[in-house]
Amino acid sequence: MSVFGEQLQERLNMLLGKRLSSGLTLTGWRFDLHEMEHLEVGLKNNKIGGPYTAPGLKQESSGEICLHWAGEKYTIARIERRVLEEFQANLELWEKTAYIDPYGPGLVKPYEPPAVLLAHEDAMAILNGEFTPAFSFLAEGLETMAGYGTTKVDGRVKISRDRRLVANSEGLWVSYEQTPVEIYLAGDDLFGEVFAEKRLPSPEEFSGLATYTGRTVKELKKKAVLPREGEMPIIFTPRVFEAFLEHYLLSNLSGRLVANRQSAFGAQDFQEAKKVFRGDLTISVDGTRPYRYSSYRCTGEGVPTGRVDLVREGRLITPVLTLKYAKKLGMEPTPIPVAGAQGLMIDLPHRESFQDFLGELEDCLIVYSVLGLHTQDYSAGKFSLAADQSLLVQKGRIQGKVETVIAGDFWQVLAGEDTVFLDYPREETPAVCFKAHVAQ
Amino acid sequence: MTRSLRVDCYDETVEAAVEMGRKEQVGFILRIQEKKELLFNLNNGETEEIATTSLRGMGIQVCTPEGYTGFASSDRIDPSIVKELFQQAYALAKRVQAMQGEVNTAVFSVPPNNRRVVVPLKHPYGSCSLAEIEERLKKLNKSLAMDPRLSVRTVHRLVDEEWRVARHDGTDTVFMTPRSFIYNIFTAREKGKTATTYSNLPGTDLSILLEPAETAKLYKKSVPAAKMALDLLNAGTVKSGSYKLVIDYALAIGLAHEAFGHAAETDGMESSILGENGRLRRGMEVASPIVSIIDGPVEGDYAYQPISANGIDRQTVYIVRDGILETGLADLFSAADAGVPVTGAGRAESFHHLPLARMSNIRIQVKDPWTIEEEFEEITPEKLYKYMLRTGLMKEGEEVYYLSGFQGGQVNPAEGNFVFNCSGIYRLGPAPRLYRPAIFSGRILTALQAVRAGLGPLKIDAMGTCGKMFQGVPSSGGSHYFLVLDKNPGIMLGGEGR
User: Fold this and answer.
1) Which stretch of DSSP H or E encloses residue B98?
2) C-alpha to C-alpha distance for A217 and B470, rounded to whole angstroms
3) Which domains does chain B have, with CATH numbers?
4) Is the pTM higher than 0.90?
5) pLDDT-based confidence at residue B1 (cuts at 50, 70, 90)
């Protein structure tokens, strides 16, 4: 990577300050390069491999380049391995696609970003040829889930090595390795769960994943009848809650949407620290935790990782801001949440125990998945969805699966004083209980 | 001889793969992809971003004589790399064999194919200056900012994509999958309320921007979408329940795609509700006898793909004919097990991916549709109400809801549940009343029984992106301008409680 990066740096530096035939003068540059290797192994219908889930090794070098030209002009391009071989042709295209942007960002000055642990030796060993553990995860997952009566197990293991280089013409040069690992198990087309970190799971973590998936599939096979329609308590499991946070909250916290009046929140709402959610809720982005899937050393623009509150005690603090939208809104750039809401920290002074809380409710639904979340209007906050995998719980006892249509207002979920946040086994993100309209 | 394509220059790489296959006595499918892309992003009259993308690479799927598969891919294309990838994929296939993984020998049972499809394009990538494209998009974007409460974002994407698929049996196919779209996003905000709607125009090249008839069509689609966003700010919510419904052609693709197409893909037949013991339940009555569902590539369409990612010609098929399940969307590797012929349905997102059975352009066709002479874009909810009365499809005072604008959907083919969503809902009447969108959910085996009539000619240019097993590919389709669905317990409109 460093050779590729050094050569690209050299070619770009040679152009700095020169007026090109198009009349453009290069004043600065930045790039974000990734040299990636992946091993993927799949399991379909209890069989490892096969034409749809064959084990595969994949290699690519790609990235993004941003050129700064005199006269507030910019070029952005996705680049691939052959950018150096075909540099002149690429340069001509980059000149043609330069556009004026009065809010175009500057370049980050050189600094040493936090040294976050992101590359795991055991994961790297797999990519160096010790493939066996990748296959073993699937074989073990299959065995565990079969033990719960799952008749059709599907799964996927993806282990990657990413050599990343973020550099710019100011002298920034941040180079590091990371090893994202994703392991997914699903049963009987009812329920699936994922492990995603920048390391391999411990035996306990993997066993927990397979057990939770198998047990949930088993519970979802038993049918129950919804006792009534209308308003009732529902619980989003952490994975469903994260999906809602990503679709509604993160979309509306996007600096681009805020700056362009396409968010439910206006720029002034942040300037005034407007209170929009309940007073004990703080939501942050934190990219500094070792080996977390959402961790990194700096953004593609070179903004350092860190921990930043987006919402503090129910008040809007900052949108998620790249350099451009930070400039446009007159605010500081922020770390960017990676992997959606997995990169968010949800802080509350108090969380109830999931198991204890279930026993307190007359009846409720635990929602394990919804169909159609991506079809909802993110800006409105309202939802109307099919909750296709839900368990009916009455007086703390799981009765079985019900299929329902749920409707509500996600902003109200985050604002409501009667919303209850629950500690969920194995998860950092809480489950959340609130009242919604439920119909069959 | 058709004009040359960029993927034509990789003869030596293809030959090297063939040589490896011969030497190792194994089968393979080699996929080479070349893609160039332009993306324009404008917001409220200003250019926000112009970005280019370039993607090139190859993936090779190796199959041992016993039927074990391995795969390797790289963004480098040359003879030495293909040999390296071949060895990696072969080693992985042998590892699957050692683990007694899945066996599939279908790649040895198809005839070779040497078809070449070069799509004639009126305004291809590179035929118009970027400055002119930017100027036209700015003009369009500004023309749609018709109210200070509105924010308008316009996205234009132009993709110039070529594929070459070769196999050990001498197959060497070349085809193009060009596509483009202009997408407008309207966000209305007032007094703390927000609503977002969309309009789009798909195509294969820059015609959508340079041909006056096309831009006029987009404008006609966009104005009602912008107005709907404003009107939704003060719209109420429909009570959940089953109703008689009218859906537009863009939503009909949701019905065809989510409610049926995915369940007919043969690579999921072991658990699909349309399968029994892994085989497609051909001959089963699945829809009203007036309904047929057809899938196949249409030249000039956003999701056009004439040849599968396994090098097999893509067929146009009747999945459902006159209400009866006739065939599946069958790729090379799952057709035999599903008991249907291969229809060339294998598609892959990129050279890094293994192909899956997928839809292309899927449409619902209804027998004896009612005639409408006007263009779809001319028909307001008021006019639709009059058509419904005139044709006897509804009575005055009857509770009928018209769902407009497709917002995507999702399905669980194993359980037979599907959902899709609209931009807005009108209660039809002399003065139609607008409601906020609500999820449309249903059961695969009953939803299509509810189709009662079609209004207007076929319109099959609704676009989308279909996601399956971590891959996204372009999709499209439609139906007659409008479909009328009887009240049916298998179809439910979400919303607030009853």
Assistant:
1) helix B79-98
2) 21
3) 6-232 (3.30.2290.10), 244-493 (no CATH)
4) yes
5) low
**Which tokens go with B277?**
């013991």
Q: Inter-chain contact A384–B438, Cβ cutoff 8 Å?
A: yes
For residue A121, give the H/E element and its range. Answer: helix A121-127
Q: Are B403 and B428 within 8 A, CB to CB?
A: no
Angle at A218 between CA A214 and CA A219, to 5 degrees: 120
Of B36, B48, B41, which Cα lies nearest the Cα of B158? B36
Contact by Cβ (8 Å): B260, B182: no
pLDDT tens profile A220-279: 999 999 999 999 999 999 999 999 999 999 999 999 999 999 999 999 999 999 999 999
Longest dimension (CA), chain A: 76
Domain boundaries, chain A: 121-164+173-219, 228-440
How many Å apart are CA B403 and CA B395, to the nearest integer? 18
Residue spans of beta strands (DSSP E) within B112-176 = 116-117, 150-167, 172-176
Contact B70 A101 (CB under 8 A): no
Least confident of A167-176, A351-360, B488-497: B488-497
For residue B71, the distance in angstroms to the closest alpha carbon of chain A comes to 4
For B134, which of A45, A99, A230 is closest by C-beta distance? A99
Identity of residue B215: T
**Fold held by A121-164+173-219:** Double Stranded RNA Binding Domain (3.30.160)
The residue of chain B nearest to residue A265, with distances taken between CA atoms, is B192
State the Cα–Cα distance between residues B437 and B401, nearest whole angstrom. Answer: 11
Of B53, B130, B496, the CB nearest to A96: B130
DSSP symbol at A240: H
Q: Nearest Cα to A324, choosing from A144, A41, A108, A157?
A: A108
Note the pLDDT tens digit of each residue in B68-91.
999 999 999 999 999 999 999 999
Q: Residue A108 carries which DSSP code?
A: P
Q: What is residue B262's DSSP assignment?
A: G
Helices first, then strands: H and E counts in chain B: 9, 24
b/e per residue, A368-404, with b = 16+ CB within 10 A? bbbbbbebbbbbbbbbbbbbbbbbbbeeeeebebbbb
**Both tokens of residue A165?**
């280089």
* Neighbour-count burial of B80, counting CB atoms closer than 10 A to its CB (0-12 exposed, 13-18 middle, 19+ buried): exposed
Residues A81-124 have pLDDT tens digits of 899 999 999 999 999 999 999 999 899 999 999 899 999 999 99
Closest approach of chain B CAs to the CA of A234, in angstroms?
15
For B361, list phi and psi in degrees, rounded to 5: -105, 115
Q: What percent of chain A has pLDDT over 90?
A: 92
User: Could you please report the per-residue DSSP string of B179-230?
Assistant: EEEEEEEEEEEETTEEEEEEEEEEESSTHHHHSHHHHHHHHHHHHHHHHHHH
Q: A60–B71: do the CB atoms touch at under 8 Å? A: no
Where is average pLDDT lowest: A1-5, A139-143, A380-384, B186-190? Answer: A1-5
Burial of A18 (0-12, 13-18, 19+ CB in 10 A): exposed
Chain A contact set for B194 (CB, 8 A): 263-264, 377, 379-381
Residue whose structure tokens are 């209890």: A46
- CA A255 vs CA A274, A341, B34, B92: distances in Å: 16, 16, 33, 44
Buried b (16+ CB within 10 A) or exposed e, B317-348: bbbbbebbbbbbbbbbbbbbbbbbebbbbbbb
In three-state secondary structure terms, A346 is strand
Is-contact B200 B463, C-beta < 8 A? yes
Expressed in angstroms, the distance from the first to the final Cα of chain B is 65
Which of A22, A40, A48, A60 is the best mutation test for B, with the most CBs of B within 10 A?
Answer: A60
Are A97 and B61 inside 8 Å of each other by CB? no
Measured from the Cβ of residue B270, the count of other Cβ atoms closer than 10 Å reads: 19
